Task: structure prediction
Amino acid sequence: MAMNNLEGKRILVTGGTGSLGKTLVNRLLTGEMGTPAQITVFSRDEAKQHYMRLEFLNRETATDDVIYRGSKDLLNFRIGDVRDYSALVAAMRQADVVFNAAALKQVPSCEYFPIEAVETNIYGAANIVRAVRENNLSVEKVIGISTDKACKPINVMGMTKALQERVLIEANRDCEPTVFNCVRYGNVIASRGSIIPLFVEQIKNDQPITVTLPEMTRFLLSLDRAVDTVFEAVRSGGRGLTFVPKVASAKITDVATALMGDKKLPFVFCGIRPGEKVHEIMVSEEECFRTVEVGDYYVILPVLPELRTGDEFTPALETEYTSKDNNLAIEPLRELLLSSDDEIKRFLSPN
Result:
């Protein structure tokens, strides 16, 4: 399939100053999906936008020269919030492709402020759909960024993300020709607020390693693998699809052990946090019957039958796709961590 799907496109990234947003913008600027006409970062934090702008303008290595030139010519920033319909409409008037990475994603925070999670994660997505539906915008594709926690959700973050998926998928019924697809993935290694940077800090300071429960597992993937999944959703010609990467899973205690290397620090088990699962699920047993396999991805077909093509297919899974199964051993896990993040690589290989 052609790799220049975004050639000459005007792209809007909501939540573009977050961990995924920054990596997505970085990858867009390399031109691997074609050279966009414009990339706009839309978010509500002016300080993060300021520092992101400085970061993208001050690349020093030759290989990043494309990003430097591209950021001067292509990259711009817009203050706004997905909760603000009028601000979103104004930004989307200039967009051919929208990546919705805006989210409240910290699980305990969403438990304590559930309405805030509803406003951003559900109504933010609904505002994107409404903007397309009511303003005859020329948006060609909308890609919603979801999470494994949206699958059989037990926490507010997952519940709101599950509804975001449904809001976006349903929009395919009456928003033609705009295509709405989603991606769903697990814990991003070293993303802001994740457990791995905490482990690194504890290990550096020879502190006990704090883990919720000894049996807890998670799916793990790099930020680049997350962006690969987003790009797969862009390339697809289908509508109302949810893309799930095939990735490794591991016990959280094994993640800490892999990071410790030769150190032997004690574990302190502090109990499950509000809203946490012991194991994550990326495809539920109810979704298995409408899940197909496309290369390195599972693709969940729309829950609404009228959005499916009617073509014959063989379900790719017989049981749910869960982080409980096929956990990595310590050494392969260490290799995954080494290859996923530069800071972790420097930490694990200081010489």
